[in-house]
Amino acid sequence: MTGLGVTTAVGQGKTAFADALFAGAQRFAVMRRPGRQAGTRFVGAEIPAFAPTNRLAARELRTVSLTGQVLLATLEEAWTEARLDEVPAERIGLVVGGSNLQQRELTLAQDRHRAKPRFLRPSYGMSFLDTDLCGLATAAFGIRGFAHTVGGASASGQLAVIEAAEAVASGRVDACVAVGALMDLSYWEYLGLNAMGAMAPESCADAPELACRPFDAGRGGFVFGEACGALVVERVGARPAPAEPYAALTGWSVQLDGNRNPNPSLEGEVRAIGQALERARLTAADIDYVNPHGTASPVGDRTEADALLAAGLTRARVNATKSITGHGLTAAGAVEAVAALLQMRHGRLHPTRNLVEPIDDRLRWVRGEAVEAEVGHCLSLSMGFGGINTALCMSKCESRRA
Amino acid sequence: MKSEEILPLIHEAIVEVLPELDGHDFQETDSLDALGANSMDRAEIVMIVLEAMNLEIPLVDTFGPQNLGELARHLADKTAVAR
Fold first, then answer.
1. Hey, where are the domains in chain B?
2. How close does chain B come to A153, measured CA to CA in Å?
3. Helix, strand, or coil here: A37?
């Protein structure tokens, strides 16, 4: 894994993001972006002004959604770090994690033209497709290997990393960029998630900074956070002098529950952890750090804590990135893999905001302050509605076993 | 609506879609193609003009004209028919 890019509400770029993580920063507030509220006071973390890519002309930017602009800026960071300009375009792939990514801007366009639908802009016919993001990115970066999206609800970002790893391992391409794309919720999606009880209650608007509390006894559900993460995965030996890798992706797993509903499964999560460890030829005792899914869902966090215990991950330190970023939904798995790799490189683990009363004392939480920690092997976990459980195992290159 | 009234709407729509043409001295003989519009840009420009004119016709009915003057006259004819 040779290049990382990240854009979140608490920081654009690895340096700002790492600083924000270690400081336990936050930017939760009643959301203000057009199309986010319907007489509501939904809390979330919105990305402030960010530096766009310079690969697009002004005329091209006009029809590019927020999701697309953030994707390009984030991809640029990972691409530059990995020096992908040195890799033949035909040998580079792109996997964009997420589906139904640009709902807010579609809602705004529909609202604008509701009374005169025949004047809807022709570009809507192109941009309503998530795959427009693939076209946009491959045109901007000259990618010629392959590009497609993968949907896995809140596991989409991690699923993209796994698809990229498979594409590189199979020899289909030499390098592949996995992106967890920004899921731009409109008030409709937020209302739906809120109605089903997934979100922290609207009353959190009175103290937004306290709303997102993964693994805390007082947790009340997800708090949305705009985010995007990009990771470059390369096959070892595919080029003579790649960029200094952050880590080796030593194991991964996708396990399904055969369940359409949003409820988690202890058994499925334990299977995903077990298979990722087995693939990496490691045991739970080898894992120094776990970056869990940790959404602050009452049942989700309880189930995940039980899964970590059942898998024997009692030596590893655990924190929850979503307490700082909010829940990036489709972006989460990629952003959290980036967070894990940055912590690994810095030898520090970020605090978990609002973890006042942990739901389980048997796990080794990182709570109020960042801590120094040598991380040789770590796990990152994601779960998605519809019975999706994924796990990644990442190992420092010098810690890698034969 | 007369073609002289439609031309400024076309110019505005072109600049909205192709901002680099802001300040360009548009001629009736300019073609959208020569101004740098691709097929999607052309469709966007024409739809913006149709909305500004409140003229509900299928986009396919605007495909004949070869330059801005012809497009303006073509749309003027359509408004005459629509009335």
1. 3-82
2. 31
3. coil
| pLDDT tens digits along A172-220 | 999 999 999 999 999 999 999 999 999 999 999 999 999 999 999 999 9
Other CB atoms within 10 Å distance of the CB of residue A218:
12
Q: May I ask the CATH architecture of the domain B3-82?
A: Orthogonal Bundle (1.10)
- B41 vs A contacts (CB less than 8 Å): 59
| Interface predicted TM-score (ipTM) | 0.92
What averages of pLDDT result for each successive group of 10 residues across chain A (402 residues)? 98 98 98 97 95 85 94 98 98 98 97 96 95 97 98 98 98 98 98 95 95 97 98 94 95 97 97 98 98 98 98 98 98 98 98 98 97 98 98 86 36
- Decide if A123 and B16 are in contact by the 8 Å CB cutoff: no
What value does the mean pLDDT take over residues B26-41?
96
Please name the helix (run of DSSP H) or strand (run of DSSP E) that holds residue A110, with its range, or none: helix A103-112
Of A344, A279, A347, A286, the residue nearest A315 (C-alpha):
A286
Three-class SS state of B3: helix
Please provide the CATH number assigned to the domain covering A248-397.
3.40.47.10
How many whole angstroms from its chain centre is CA A121?
31
CATH of domain A3-234: 3.40.47.10
User: Domain segments of chain A: what residues?
Assistant: 3-234, 248-397
Of B18, B47, B54, the CB nearest to A121: B47
How high does pLDDT run on average in chain A? Answer: 96
Closest CB from B18, B43, B47 relative to A119: B47
Query: How many Cβ atoms sit within 10 Å of the Cβ of residue A117?
Result: 9
Q: Tally C-beta pairs within 8 A across A and B.
A: 32
The answer to whether A96 touches A133, Cβ cutoff 8 Å, is: yes
Alpha carbon distances (Å) from A68 to A72, A133, A222, A333? 6, 6, 24, 18
